[in-house]
Amino acid sequence: MTQPSSSNTNATGWLTRRLPFLAPLHRHMTQFPMPPVNGWWGLGACLIVALCLMGLSGLFLALNYTPDSQQAFSAIEEIQRRVPSGWLIRSIHTTGATMLFAALYLHVGRGLWYGSYKAPRELVWLSGLVLLLLFMITAFAGYVLPWGQMSYWGATVITHAVEAIPAIGKPLINVLLGGEGLGTIALHRFFVLHFALGFIVLAIVGLHVVFLHGVGSSNPTADSPQPVTQTRPFSPYYISKDGVLVCVFLLIYAGLLFFLPDWIEKTSNIIPANPLKTPSDITPEWYLAPFYAMLRAVPSRLGGLIVAAFSVLVLFALPWLDRSPRHNATYRPTIRLGMTLVFIAFITLGAAGVHSPTTLWLWLSRVGLIVWFGVFLILLPLTAQRERRLARSPQEGSQS
Amino acid sequence: MSDRPQQPHPADRPDDGPTRRDVIGLSTAALGGAGVCALSVPFLDSLRGPHAATSGDAVQNAVVDVDVSDLAPGGQKTVLWQSFPVSIQRRTPAMIAALSAPELIAQLRDPNSSVLQQPHDAVNAHRSLNADYGVFITICTHLGCIPNLRDLPNLPASGGFFCPCHGSQFDGAGRVLRDMPAPYNLPVPPMHYLSPTVIRLGESKADPHFNIASIQQI
Known about the structure:
- The complex is a heterodimer.
- By secondary structure, chain A is mainly alpha-helical.
- Chain A has helices spanning 11-18, 22-30, 43-62, 72-81, 86-113, 122-144, 149-163, 169-177, 184-215, 234-259, 261-264, 289-297, 301-316, 318-321, 333-354, 359-392, 394-399, and strands at 33-34, 232-233.
- Chain A has a two-stranded antiparallel ribbon with strand order 1-2.
- Mean pLDDT of chain A is 92; it is low at 1-7.
- Chain B is built from four helices and nine strands.
- By secondary structure, chain B is α+β, with helices and mostly antiparallel strands.
- In chain B, 26% of the residues are buried.
């Protein structure tokens, strides 16, 4: 690692002497030592690209949007029909939400499978979970803005769910909606919330990357019979690898954007919000469906909310629930099974969330919830305890 | 693939000019740059605004009919035409006479309306179709403020306009005085009379191809 020479007289040297953080930043972008990570580690780069596209398209949408209950719907129609290329910019934004959440869930799933949440990466994991929650709030607020039927009734259902929180629920919703029902005041707040959260999320992503660069990426081969400890510099090895994955990500993005736009947008949101008529079936976007299924799986308004909230909060405790020295689920038989079940449970909950709550789907979501909490609260700590015992006295393990 | 640092590929050796890696890197950057440029097209396109496809004809053809029978001699009113404020003033014979006063003409920047700020039929001593009515777009040719009605000081009273922003002064025919910040006379809209007391703004009979967007300064 060579310091950029201070006797450098070219423009880079001139800047580096005046902005001392540039040299470490450049070192981190080029020489950051990477363990032999696989393709799943490229999702972070895809997420940054998706976030940039969301920010860019969001800014241009905001230029033509009016947060007013009488004008919001027609503003979106005007963007779709009148603003030159407006349909494309809006599609980049709506498809971007799907692509961002798809990459986000896979990114979290990779962290779960490879134990990326463990010491010393707790801060990376916790900041990532904060981002997950903020993305969900941002997506929800954004979905209200077109002021279609699904926007209106989705907002109605969620605000009523939050109202169930004892003591703070009602005041919180009162502040969010501006003391009235869902109308212009509330819509304006949703707009500002959505807009502001976009930038807050961007800042926390920066923090997330700084946390990662403090401790380095985890090594998926560390627990394997033949661990590879050799590291390679980020540039050119992992810039190229991330670049290829970003290209694949953008290809899928463009495919959805240009060939399957209707698959993303629900038809009932192309009907203007009508406070007198609820659509026949209210389903959230797929990326919020698992949590919506959790809300419905518990036959109690507050209970459903608590369960949905704890399903994410339990993830915050993972670094302390699983204190085993082993990371990679591939080499932890019970965790391999447990994490597979968790992934299946999440997908099942998602499927339940986009279907009407029939008996079958209700029970499937209940089973999914039991698996989710069972793995994280019982299987993971017990396995970790056993693995720590084995790590202290390897003989005991081989005898038993 | 071994985990030891590899020997550079023979084609990558930097001793004779650009290497294979240089070519790969530059091509990748060029293709990525082209992609970013292509992505910027819809975003820049959208900045043309929602009425980009319809502006032009619809606005160009917009006409406003104004009944001026309620104006007493010396009276004035302001109407809106194509989002421009248009001042219509009925002149007294004394005001018409004042417009030709030599001491006024001597102080004007463009007394003969030689700069294209009006249709052909308004290039005359009173800058209007009919000397009895002065019709002007009251947007100062300096920086776009709206001048108020005010006679010029120390000159025969011909009417006149005074811009509150930077003090530009115009006579009753919208002609700017010398040494004022405003460089040109006030624009005259295309118009004709439907009857002696009804003005149609937006169409000039004598100058049918006159386009307000193509004048020197509005």
